[in-house]
Design goal:
By secondary structure, this protein is α+β, with helices and mostly antiparallel strands. It has 22 helices and seven strands. The longest helix has 18 residues.
Amino acid sequence: MGDEYIWKFGRFSYCASDHRLIACDSVTSLPPKQAELLLLFLENPSKVLSRREIARHLWPSVHVGRTSLGVQIAGLRRALGDSAKSSEFIETVNSLGYRFLKEAQCPARRVLNSVDADKKAGNAAASSARVEAAFMDPSGIGLFSRRAGAFGASSVEEAYRLYALGRRWWRRRTNPDVLRATECYEEAVELAPSFSLPYVGMADAYNYLSMHPGGHSSFQSAKNAKECAYQAIRLNPNSAPAWAALGHAQFTRDWEVNAAEDSYKIAISLDPGYAPAHQWYSWLLLALGRKAESIWEIKCARLLDESGTNSRVAYGFHLYCLGQHDQALKELRAVLDTNPEFKPAYREIGRIYEAQGNYYKAVEVYRHARTGTKLDPEVDAEMDAVYAYALTRTGGEKQAAQILSALLQNEAKIALPHYEVATLLSGYKSNRFNWLQMSPKSLSQSIC
């Protein structure tokens, strides 16, 4: 069965578990019968399937005529932008049936089949390498945990358990949690130095810390991220997460745009189902002004990591950049419905209200985020800066000055968001330029 995998064919990605078909400019939910039909074609490319064979697959216990099948074929063709007269995907083979013309890729399925073969042959080493190249879901458990028995060495199994635990901490996206994740990864490396995934985890953690230092050196964290990503690639050149982490470090640390794009493309080619690669690549494309490509990548990430708050907020931000404010607000509010403590969602909602000139509404959102959610010094510093700026636009200059003073007094304890402080200082005609100069040096993410 292929109903748990992501398929790639032509210009489409297809998530069989929820029947969603993604193209560069659309996401389509297929009706159940059309979804079954597409999956049958994907599993049998270039093979002529008779009408009777297809009908038995779609209606195993019911006799149907040609008309019912014809309706499903026509509906699927419409979804694919295909036609009977000029077939790109579904070809009608006269008097015989239908043939699917595109070869489909399903990396996770291919790797799983290879792992099973290795396991039967007793080849644990080959199985280990294959698993590392496979699709890793964003929870950090993914395909590997289902196949952990393929590893004969208990040290590697324990290293993966630590890696998976670190991944859970990392996904919370707060400095204390990411530091806990780093501890898990370091312990995993000690147990299994030749296991690449813990290095991937450390690269992702250091990438986060380079953007949210929390008392650590931004550039040292960025340097560590790059070194860990390279080590992961040396151990496993076919690791999509490793290439994605390297691309992230190249983009955010050294602004190596071309090299970063190459790394992201390698990651996606190795595993089209790895959501972070699509998400991080979308940020690079957005920074380059390639909005159409960017929205395609973030849509892929959104589909592949449907329950992930970070990818959903990123999707909301992309919608905002495209001027689709109502849709962006809907997406961001849905995030807060499930996770009311996720402050980046408040930040993006406030950003939208500011763009609309509704600074009073932005102040209300920022105030709630500061007083109605748990404290996180790193995130709160940025929230304080944007809140103070919104206050200066609504007659609250005195309160804004107090917030600014408190931020500057805590500069030694937290990594100030230099770009946001520079924006805030623009209202005071102060040393704004000095803070703008510091923004690239501290890797302020607002200018990435």
